[in-house]
Amino acid sequence: MKRPKLKKASKRMSCSKRYKIQKKVREHNRKLKKKAKTKGVSNRPKKDLAVPNSAPFKEEVLREAEQRRLKIEEEKERRREAVKEERAKKRKKENEVARKEPEPKAKKARQDEKPPEKNCKKFICGQLNNVIDAADVIIEVLDARDPLGCRCPQLEEAVLQRAGNKKLFLVLTKIDLVPKANVERWIERLQQEFPVVAFKASVLAPAKKAKKRGMLVASNEVLNRSRGGACFGSTLLTEMLTSYAASKQDHSTLRVGVVGFPNVGKSSLVNSLKGSHVCNVGVKRGITKSVQEVCVSSQINLLDSPGIVACPSNPAASLALRSLQVEEGEESVQEAARTVLKLCDKTQVMLQYNVADYRTAPEFLTLLAKKRGFLQKGGDPNLVQTATVFLDDWTGAKLSYHCKVPDNLGLPAYMTTTLVTEMWTGLDRNQLESGNQNTLSSVKFPNQSSSISFMSKSPTAGLLVVNDIPEEVAKPAEKEVLQPEPRADQTNADEAEPVSPKGKTKQVQFQSAHIETVCADDAYDFNTDFV
């Protein structure tokens, strides 16, 4: 077998270079010796004067020298112990004095009041209320794939009731994942209440990742084109905010709060308006943990906020679609995937993921795992990893699905015609409509057949105060075991499934089947027939 070539660098050098290095070393050592000589420092070790063998009483002399050395070491050890004892006494005395002195009340209060964790619901609700109070304009970011499910009535009502005549805008993000006709119908429906801006965020890389092979971040345009990450709608939104800031009487900096549920595109919106990667983005929930103020221009400051805390009483589909219960540990990824699959058209899911016909959610995850190569040791499909990837497609900006606009959707209870007029004052409606038309004409939309139709029933309830959680709902729900979905011939049996008074489905219990009695004429007589 031929040995591979070694690619190690050779240590050979020319003689002139080696002689030059040796000369430099000799000169350096000579300088060090000269400097030590002028200072009177000698690096030579002291020579041990040994006792010659011819000296009389040599053993006694060596014994005395050894005893002298041991005494010196004992004296050094005794001094070290004395220093340690003295330091310990001094430290003990200081601690006793500190205990006797009364502790300041302010320090006690700071120790008693522990700061809330950034991941807790109380801290997130406090940050959201701070954004609502500090902002002049509130932008509620809605995912264009499910605008109704992304709306929070509690948030909108709180904004309208706050003092200061705050404006509320709606921004439809991820419009490139929804058919064009569906986006137009949603814009027409939502504009009956608030101003709506169609928006597609750009894909911006962090500054550290953009610097590669000495290239600066100035080539971010090439990165955006390569990923298809062009931004649309930012010019219209910036012009609206700038014109509104100019119409204010105090001519101060306009503070715009960006709010919404997790994974709707709040931080991506801020990055696109700024034109650089200033806020961290990702598929996982809770990346934005506190309020971050970003200066877009001399007249506009954006306030990026953490996601709205969803109420546990929401439908399972609303919570599963944003992986809220999954990341809180109240539901498994397989249960969330099963809930999402129930509200989708099976044929469109099969075409989207290019899998064969399936009957249950576990069967779909098994087919998808084999197709994607998510296998465990022994060739068994990894259903947990497959369900995680499936949910990431739905929460992130990757999968195309859309919800139909409901026909009988009227104004909410907290909205009136007067409030609708106030939201539109100071804004040019024709400019907004023409800007949305230009955005829709520039974006490349998916076909209706390649997008999955999804059912969204109602808005998602949110929490602005943690105390709003009911006691019964606040308790963690019992985890249900993922079971195969019922077939068509079992629908009647599922309708008769017992339901608890709290609305939760009980686990199915096996009962003895009822055996019908046979008539006397049809019964066999074993004594006569089988003789």
Determine and state the CATH class of the domain at 121-311 and 406-463.
Alpha Beta
| Content-based structural category | alpha/beta
Number of helices: 22
Summarize model confidence as the mean pLDDT: 77
Widest beta sheet: strand line-up = 3-2-1-4-6-5
CATH topology of the domain at 121-311 and 406-463: Rossmann fold
What Rg, in angstroms, do the CA atoms define? 38 Å
Strand content: 5-15%
Q: Report the biggest beta sheet as strand number plus sense, adding barrel if it closes.
A: 6 strands, mixed
Q: What is the number of strand segments?
A: 10
Distance between the termini: 86 Å
Instruction: Name the CATH architecture of the domain at 121-311 and 406-463.
Output: 3-Layer(aba) Sandwich
The CATH superfamily of the domain at 121-311 and 406-463 appears as: P-loop containing nucleotide triphosphate hydrolases
Proportion of residues in helical segments: 40-55%
Q: In one word, what is the shape?
A: elongated
- Poorly predicted ranges: 210-227, 471-524
Question: Features of this protein?
Answer:
531 residues, alpha/beta, Rossmann fold, six-stranded mixed β-sheet, two-stranded antiparallel ribbon
Describe the structure.
The protein is an alpha/beta fold. The protein has a domain at 121-311 and 406-463: Rossmann fold (3-Layer(aba) Sandwich), CATH 3.40.50.300. It has 22 helices and ten strands. The chain has helices spanning 15-39, 58-100, 105-112, 121-134, 147-150, 153-161, 180-190, 207-210, 220-227, 234-247, 266-274, 316-321, 324-327, 333-342, 346-353, 361-372, 383-395, 417-424, 429-442, 471-474, 491-495, 526-529, and strands at 137-143, 167-173, 196-198, 254-259, 292-295, 300-304, 309-310, 401-403, 452-454, 462-463. The chain has a six-stranded mixed sheet, sandwiched between helices. It has a two-stranded antiparallel ribbon with strand order 7-10. Helix 14 (333-342) packs across helix 17 and helix 16 crosses helix 17. The longest helix has 43 residues, at 58-100. The radius of gyration is 38 Å and the shape is elongated. The chain starts with 14 loop residues before the first helix and ends with a helix. Residues 210-227 and 471-524 have low confidence and may be disordered.
